[in-house]
Design a protein that fits this description.
TIM Barrel; two-stranded antiparallel sheet
């Protein structure tokens, strides 16, 4: 039987489908959470310069006792470090904090439409890092179809991954279709809808964890709503990045390889899409946020 937790990227690199996320994880809790996740069985950790916890992610990986090659490390360049040479320096910052000399996957965090020429230059920096063997795969995050079209016209390497907001209430079919047409893997952030409570977004929206349809499917399998949503993501061939600092939840989120949703259950969950974004709109410039400087250490 094929390994359900393996996905092959468009350049042949193999990546664990289920990754451990650390968005909004306080730095003081991140090392223990990462160590716990790796002890549970995760072999893929997703962080970002803007999360301000890359150093703690590295500590957690070292504390796990696993070899470097056994952990797939993914991080992201923040907008204030966009530009070709700036992105090369951003790589140096990230690897110094993580305590490694090579990254498995490096993404641009935002399309940054108000400075897209710098975004393109930053992606060319990723291409340089890829050619030099300092990263194994490169990609983007929060890129909509028109962003991808503009990027592909001006660069050489097709992104391996596009990480986007994706959960049963917001499935982004247009982005997924564009990704698939170009061989770009869709990776879900907020895969169980936790971003419903993203600061400044989603006020008044109820948690997907309380959805009746998902609850009924979960009850039928003796699983939780979160496990059902993650299973739904994986059966669609996507990568998913759940996050938690709670040891029980970390283990629960990894317990998704011992059951299978039926075609009818998959369709029922697909039908929950409301087409409403809960996180920030990638087309809306946020200069105050984009200009935030990423510390050297």
């Amino acid at each position: 039987m094929a390994n359900e937790n393996e996905l092959v990227l468009n350049n042949g690199v193999t990546m664990p489908a289920l990754g451990f996320g650390v968005f909004q994880s306080p730095p003081e809790e991140t090392s223990a959470a990462v160590e716990t996740a790796l002890n549970v069985g995760y072999r893929h950790v997703d962080t970002a310069a803007a999360y301000n916890n890359e150093r703690q992610v590295g500590e957690g990986i070292r504390r796990s006792g696993l070899r470097r090659d056994d952990v797939f490390i993914e991080t992201k360049v923040w907008v204030s470090d966009y530009g070709h040479d700036e992105t090369l320096r951003a790589f140096e910052k990230a690897t110094r904090k993580l305590g490694v000399d090579r990254l498995d996957l490096l993404l641009l965090h935002q399309p940054a439409t108000d400075r897209f020429d710098r975004t393109v230059a930053a992606y060319r920096g990723l291409e340089t890092l890829l050619a030099d063997g300092r990263v194994r795969a490169i990609g983007v995050s929060n890129f909509m179809p028109h962003h991808l079209a503009d990027l592909l016209e001006r660069t050489e390497v097709v992104p391996a991954v596009n990480q986007i907001e994706l959960h049963p209430y917001f499935t982004q079919p247009d982005v997924r279709k564009t990704n698939a047409e170009h061989g770009i893997l869709t990776q879900a952030w907020s895969p169980i809808g936790g971003i419903t409570f993203y600061p400044g977004y989603g006020e008044g929206r109820r948690s997907i964890l309380g959805d009746g349809t998902i609850g009924a499917v979960a009850a039928g399998h003796g699983k939780t709503a979160a496990q059902v949503m993650l299973r739904w993501q994986l059966q669609h061939g996507r990568s998913a990045i759940p996050k938690s600092t709670n040891p029980a939840r970390i283990a629960e989120n990894f317990g998704v390889f011992d059951f299978e949703l039926t075609a009818d259950e998959m369709s029922m969950i697909d039908a929950l899409d409301r087409g409403v974004r809960n996180g920030p709109d990638p087309d809306v410039p946020r200069p105050a946020m984009f200009d935030r400087v990423i510390p050297e250490d």
